[in-house]
Amino acid sequence: MADQSPTLAPTSNTVHGPAVARAARARRRTSARSPFSAASLEASRFMPRTATRRQPSHSHCRRRRPSSGRIRRPRIPIGRHSSGRGRRGRTTRQGITPRLTAAPPRREDAARPVPRAREPTVRIFLVLAASPNPTFASSLWRSNLHDPLVAMGHDVVLFEEGVLPLFDLDPALTSTAGPRGIFTQRFLDAVEAAHRAAPLDLVLTYVSDSHLEPDAVRRVRERVAPVVNFFCNNIHQFHLVRRIAPAFDLCLVPEHAALARYRAVGAEPLFWPMAANPDVYRPLPLAPEYGATFAGQRYGERTTHLLALLDAGVDAHAFGQGWSADGPLAAPGSAEARGVPAAAARLALDALRGRLPWRALADRAAWRALRARHAAALHGPLDDAGYVALFSRSRVSLGFLDLGDTHRTLRPLRQVRLREFEATMAGAFYLTGWLEELGEHYVLGREIECYRSRAELVDKCRWYLAHDDARAAVARAGHARARRDHTWTRRFEALFAELRRRGRIAA
User: Fold this and answer.
1) pLDDT (tens digit, 9 = 90+) per residue, 397-420?
2) What is the CA radius of gyration of the chain?
3) How far is C-alpha 427 from the chain's CA centre?
4) 18-24+44-55+77-99+116-274+488-501: which CATH architecture?
5) What is the mean pLDDT of the chain?
6) What is the pTM of this model?
7) Which contacts of 111-118 are long-range, i.e. CB under 8 A and separated by 24 or more positions?
8) Which CATH architecture has domain 290-485?
9) For residue 252, what are the β-bridge partners?
């Protein structure tokens, strides 16, 4: 049966003036009462949602409302937030540090996006951790989800303090209830303060079950603005958002195969693929110094793939957590690190979970061989600037789509990742694993290349390293496609168009 989930609607070419959004906010400024006060919540029980929420309006038919004589509430500071300006939009941020390095100059021959009609300004409360990993400095998600909104001219209130640590908690454990309750109250307080300063049009979050209580999300939806949540890695981590997903107006899902899971729990998913920020990921005037590279954590089949390339004579290198040649053979705290009895117990448990024990043994043997024979090809993590530069320093950029240790099963799990868009946006020749869903984003074989087996990975890597013109043609085509279709600006335009179509934000 064809997938019936909503898809990204094409962006309208109609020009809406910023006055539309300002007027919509002004109509909601009718009470000094807190949206979360006891009186307000009691009143909301007997008041339809349309009476407390803005209605879609149109500049060609809207009349100016008579003044009520109220004094307009002045803008007030939001707790410890401080205001600052982006290139065009405005952001109110908490605990933000400047970028570690300045952006390199843009190449003169780089493709530039086609200008499109300016959309109405949207005031957004954004709950987002700047980095996906607490062990090294990164602003990956801030660069990809926050900065494009500011560059589009939207008014963004960024709330990020305390978001990242809660991702490490298991939402199923009772011990998570305490931290979740504390964060929920801080979230409600911050939303209230931001909404009183100037009415919010949208609350956009990147959270899991460990962060918020579903009732708090519903309260914000009823009294403030629609709430939309983004969450990735749903193929193998959907259990982390199963409880809270139905509370949101929309759930942004980057993986096609995960849409059915959201619908099964009563949530409303919207297919919203990954993308990349062209102001961050772009070709740099650097001479290639590596044959093939991969940047990311070491797990899954990545070790055996890299070993196969190096043993075949390919100048391949890996950067990231777990790759350092002088690091431990086993991850600290793992069953392998605790000794033979613990490792044997882990193998037995894996067998009960459907894992094939001999594949785990093969992974460990490959890691030992890789360290022994190719230590010079193994490197630690890169910072954000080094990560982007690596695409230009490499003739071939590698991608691996397997998830966790599912390659040890008879049915491995794979998904499209952020890297599938970062690499092409940075102008790299990209060679990644084959997945049917990739065909929705690229012309396979023309804009990116794919492999279906380890042998094909080695063959294609060697062939393209020996054919510079063919490799450059694929890189150019992939870069042009990414600039045209896979920017976060395009994704947000489609999201806002869908929300307007549903009447969730003012038209």
Assistant:
1) 999 988 777 666 767 778 899 999
2) 25
3) 20
4) 3-Layer(aba) Sandwich (3.40)
5) 80
6) 0.74
7) 111/479, 111/480, 111/483, 111/484, 112/483, 113/278, 113/483, 113/484, 113/487, 113/489, 114/484, 116/11, 116/13, 116/493, 117/12, 117/13, 117/14, 117/15, 118/15, 118/153
8) 3-Layer(aba) Sandwich (3.40)
9) 230, 270
